[in-house]
C-alpha cells in the first residue's frame, strides 16, 4: 500500500515515454532482480542445454510484469530461477538489493516473501487436504500465527481466503479440492500464497487452464491485490491478451533471452522485434496485421544459432529487409547484447538497432 | 456411406433436436439439450463454450462414441443416414470414412510405443483391407506430407515429435480414410500461439483443398472467429447463440456470448487496459438447472421474466451473411 502511494506507477501515466519522466522508478527500487542469469541443463546425450542465456529482469514492489514466450523460450526456467529453485551458472539473482540467500534458514525467509502460484490448480492442491489445511500450511511453516498478538491461525486463513475473493471464507474451510470449481481452486492456491504475506507473487500461466469467463475475474483479482496490498506480480504467460489486460511492463523471451521489453503499451502497440511482431500478428482477433505465421518451432537450446538467435526463422531476414538495411551479415554472425532491465522500450535486433540508432526519435 | 446418399443437397452432418443425458448416481445429467446444427461441404462450423457446456458430448455423439450410460434422443444424420439407429456394420464404416474426430491432447491419444507411420496406417488397413501394403505406405507418406510433417516422420515415435507435430499426426490419421467431415475438438488448446496459428492454417487449407466439412470445437471464441463461417455458442447444454462467426465474435446478441468474446481482449483496445472482463459465478449444476433461462443467475441483464421460462433459440436480426442471427434471450442485443 505505502509503496504504491510513495511512487507513481507506470500505469498512472500511460503512454509517457521514459525520456519525459526520468527516474520514475529507479532501478534500485527493484524488489527482485536477475542480472545476466545463465542456467544450463545437461541432456541425456551429454550436450548442454542453455535454458537461460543471459537474462536481466527486475520487478518492483506494486508492479505487474509479464514474461511472454512460447514453450522452450525459457520463461518457466526463469520463474524457477527467481524462486531459487534453479542455481544459475553465471549471473545473479538479488532480492531487495541483496544476493539470493543460500543458507536454508535465509532461504525460508526468502520463500515467504516470494510466493509462486502454479498453473493447473487441480494438480497443485493436495486432494486429501481441506481448503483450511491447504491455506494454513504456509502459516504454520513460517510460524506466522501468534494468538497473543491477536493473529490466530484461523484469522489469517480467513483473511487470505477473502483477499483471494472467496467470501465468506468459513463455508469453504472443510471442502476438498474436488468439491470446488476450477476458479475456486485457483483462488485457494492464490490464498495459500497470500497467507504468508508475500511481497511478490510469481504466477506461472495463472489462467491458462481456466474457462474464459473465470479468466477475467482472476486477472481482476491480481490487479486488486497489487492495488490493495502493494503486491508485485510476475506473470509467466504465452497469452499476449493477458499482458494487455494487466501488465505494466512486458518482456518477450525467445530461446533463453529477453528479445524485447518495455512498457506494455509500447511493446504491444509498437513492437520492434520481428519475433514480437510475428507473435502479435497471429493473435486471432488482430485483423489490422497481416498474419505472419513463422515456420517450425523454437530450436533446441543445445544448439543456439549464432548471431541473432532468431535469425533462422526471422521474416525480416528471409524477406530481404535486413539485407537492404545492410545488417544481414550481422544477423547471421554477430551476437546481440543482453537487454538491460529498465523501463525503456528496447529490442535485441540488428535491424532495430539501425532503425532506432541514437539520434532518431524513439517509436 | 455410399455414393447415392451424398447428393449435393444433403448436408454432411445434420443434428436434429439432439439431446444427450448421462445417468449418474445423483440423477440424470442433461449434457446436451435440443441442439440443431447443419454442416455442408466446404464449411467450417464452430462450437464455442466452456467446460461442461456439452460441446465434447456433442462431438462424441456424432460418431456414437458416447458412453453407454448416455440416453440420446433426436437425430444425428451423417450424409442423410441416422447414426443413432444404423446397424453396427454401417456405423463401423461411417467412423473414419464418413467422419472422423481430431481430439485434444495428441500426446495422450497416440500410442507412445508405435511409430507414427504405423498409427496413421491403422485406420486404412482396418477399413480398406483390400488396399495393398505398398499403397498403404504411399498413402501414409502422402498424408504426412499433406499435413506438413518433415520427410522421415513416419519412422519416428510420438515422443520424438513436438506438440505441434503430434497434432499434425492426429490430423493425418483423421484424414486417412478420406472422410468428408472432420470434427476437431479443441485441436489447438495445449499449443503455443505460433503453433496454434500453424495448425489453424492447416485445417483451413484442408477444408479448402479437399472440400471437407468441419466442426471446430473450442473454448476460445477468438480462434473460432478466425477460422469458422458460422459459430454456435453453447451454455449448459443448449445453443444460446448462432450466426456468422464475425457477427457472434464482434457483436454478440446473447449476454453470455458477449461475455465470452470480451474475455479475450483486443490488444490495443484502451477499454481493456487494466480492465479484464469477467463473468461472476460458475456455470450451473446440470443436475439441478435453475428455473427459466439457465444463464440468468450470472446474467448482468437478467430480469424477473427471465426466470419464468427458458427462451427459445429464435431469430433476432439479419447477419452479415444475409442469414438470420439466432439467440436464446429475451433481451438479445441489449448492452450493459
TrEMBL record, chain A:
MF-aspect GO terms: ATP binding; ATP hydrolysis activity
Gene3D superfamilies named among the record's database cross-references: P-loop containing nucleotide triphosphate hydrolases
Keyword ATP-binding: yes
Pfam name, any one: oligo_HPY
Stretches with biased composition (Low complexity): 9-22
Stretches for region Disordered: 1-26
Keywords: ATP-binding, Nucleotide-binding, Transport
Positions of the ABC transporter domain: 37-280
Keyword Nucleotide-binding on entry: yes
Gene Ontology terms describing biological process: peptide transport; transmembrane transport
CDD domains assigned to the protein according to its UniProt record, in alphabetical order: ABC_NikE_OppD_transporters (cd03257)
Annotated family: Belongs to the ABC transporter superfamily.
Name the record gives this protein: Putative peptide transport ATP-binding protein
Source organism (scientific name): uncultured Nocardioidaceae bacterium
Amino acid at each position: 500500500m505505502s509503496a504504491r502511494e510513495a511512487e507513481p506507477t507506470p500505469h498512472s501515466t500511460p503512454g509517457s515515454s521514459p525520456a519525459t519522466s526520468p527516474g520514475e522508478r529507479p532501478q534500485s527500487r527493484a524488489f527482485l532482480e536477475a542480472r545476466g542469469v545463465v542456467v544450463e541443463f545437461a541432456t541425456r546425450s551429454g550436450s548442454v542445454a542453455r535454458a537461460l542465456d543471459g537474462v536481466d529482469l527486475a520487478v518492483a514492489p506494486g508492479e505487474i510484469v509479464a514474461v511472454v514466450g512460447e514453450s522452450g523460450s525459457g520463461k518457466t526456467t526463469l520463474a524457477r530461477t527467481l524462486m531459487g529453485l534453479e542455481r544459475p551458472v553465471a549471473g545473479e539473482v538479488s532480492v531487495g538489493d541483496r544476493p539470493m540467500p543460500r543458507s536454508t534458514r535465509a532461504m525460508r525467509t526468502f520463500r515467504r516473501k516470494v510466493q509462486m502460484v502454479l498453473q493447473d490448480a487441480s494438480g497443485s492442491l493436495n486432494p486429501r487436504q481441506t481448503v483450511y489445511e491447504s491455506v494454513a500450511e504456509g502459516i504454520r511453516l513460517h510460524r506466522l500465527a501468534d494468538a497473543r498478538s491477536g493473529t490466530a491461525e484461523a484469522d489469517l486463513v480467513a483473511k487470505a481466503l477473502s483477499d483471494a475473493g472467496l467470501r465468506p471464507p468459513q463455508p469453504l474451510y472443510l471442502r476438498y479440492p474436488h468439491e470446488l470449481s476450477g476458479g475456486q481452486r485457483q483462488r485457494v492456491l492464490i490464498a495459500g500464497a497470500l497467507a504468508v504475506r508475500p511481497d511478490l507473487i510469481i504466477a506461472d500461466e495463472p489462467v491458462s487452464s481456466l474457462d474464459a469467463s473465470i479468466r477475467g475475474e482472476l486477472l481482476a483479482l491480481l490487479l486488486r491485490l497489487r492495488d490493495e496490498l502493494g503486491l508485485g506480480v510476475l506473470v509467466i504467460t504465452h497469452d499476449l491478451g493477458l499482458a494487455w489486460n494487466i501488465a505494466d511492463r512486458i518482456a518477450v523471451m525467445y530461446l533463453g533471452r529477453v528479445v524485447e521489453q518495455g512498457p506494455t503499451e509500447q511493446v504491444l502497440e509498437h513492437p520492434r522485434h520481428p519475433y514480437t511482431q510475428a507473435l502479435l500478428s497471429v493473435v486471432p482477433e488482430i485483423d489490422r496485421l497481416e498474419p505472419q505465421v513463422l515456420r517450425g518451432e523454437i530450436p533446441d537450446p543445445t544448439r543456439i544459432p549464432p548471431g541473432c538467435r532468431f535469425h533462422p526463422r526471422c521474416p525480416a531476414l528471409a524477406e530481404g529487409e535486413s539485407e537492404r538495411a545492410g545488417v544481414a551479415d550481422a544477423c547471421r554472425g554477430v551476437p546481440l547484447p543482453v537487454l538491460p532491465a529498465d523501463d525503456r522500450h528496447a529490442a535485441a535486433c540488428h535491424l532495430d538497432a539501425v532503425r532506432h540508432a541514437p539520434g532518431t526519435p524513439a517509436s | 456411406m455410399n455414393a447415392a446418399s451424398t447428393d449435393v443437397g444433403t448436408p454432411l452432418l445434420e443434428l436434429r433436436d439432439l439431446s444427450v443425458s448421462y445417468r449418474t448416481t445423483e440423477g440424470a445429467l442433461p449434457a446436451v439439450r435440443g441442439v440443431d446444427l447443419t454442416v455442408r461441404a466446404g464449411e467450417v462450423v464452430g462450437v464455442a463454450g466452456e467446460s461442461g457446456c456439452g460441446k465434447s458430448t456433442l462431438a462424441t455423439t456424432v460418431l456414437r462414441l458416447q458412453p453407454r450410460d448416455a440416453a440420446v434422443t433426436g437425430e444425428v444424420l451423417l450424409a442423410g443416414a441416422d447414426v443413432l439407429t444404423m446397424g453396427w456394420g454401417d456405423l463401423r464404416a461411417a467412423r473414419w470414412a464418413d467422419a472422423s474426430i481430431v481430439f485434444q491432447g495428441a500426446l495422450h491419444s497416440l500410442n507412445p510405443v508405435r511409430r507414427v507411420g504405423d498409427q496413421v496406417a491403422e485406420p486404412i488397413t482396418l477399413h480398406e483391407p483390400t488396399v495393398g501394403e505398398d499403397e498403404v505406405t504411399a498413402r501414409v507418406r502422402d498424408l504426412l506430407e499433406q499435413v506438413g510433417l518433415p520427410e522421415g516422420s513416419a519412422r519416428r515415435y510420438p515422443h520424438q515429435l513436438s506438440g505441434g507435430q503430434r497434432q499434425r499426426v492426429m490430423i493425418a490419421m483423421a484424414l486417412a480414410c478420406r472422410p468428408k467431415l472432420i470434427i476437431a475438438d479443441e485441436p489447438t488448446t495445449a499449443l503455443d500461439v505460433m503453433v496454434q496459428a500453424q495448425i489453424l492454417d492447416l485445417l483451413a487449407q484442408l477444408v479448402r483443398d479437399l472440400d471437407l466439412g468441419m466442426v471446430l470445437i473450442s473454448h476460445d471464441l477468438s480462434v473460432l472467429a478466425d477460422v469458422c463461417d458460422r459459430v454456435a455458442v453453447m451454455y449448459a447444454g443448449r445453443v444460446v447463440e448462432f450466426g456468422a462467426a464475425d457477427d457472434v465474435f464482434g457483436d454478440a446478441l446473447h449476454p453470455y456470448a458477449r461475455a465470452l468474446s470480451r474475455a479475450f481482449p483486443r490488444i490495443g483496445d484502451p477499454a481493456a487496459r487494466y480492465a479484464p472482463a469477467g463473468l461472476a459465478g460458475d456455470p450451473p449444476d446440470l443436475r439441478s438447472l435453475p428455473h427459466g433461462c439457465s444463464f440468468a443467475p450470472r446474467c448482468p441483464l437478467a430480469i424477473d421474466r427471465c426466470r419464468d421460462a427458458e427462451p427459445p433459440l429464435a431469430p433476432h436480426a439479419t447477419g452479415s451473411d444475409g442469414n438470420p442471427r439466432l439467440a436464446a434471450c429475451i433481451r438479445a442485443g441489449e448492452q450493459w
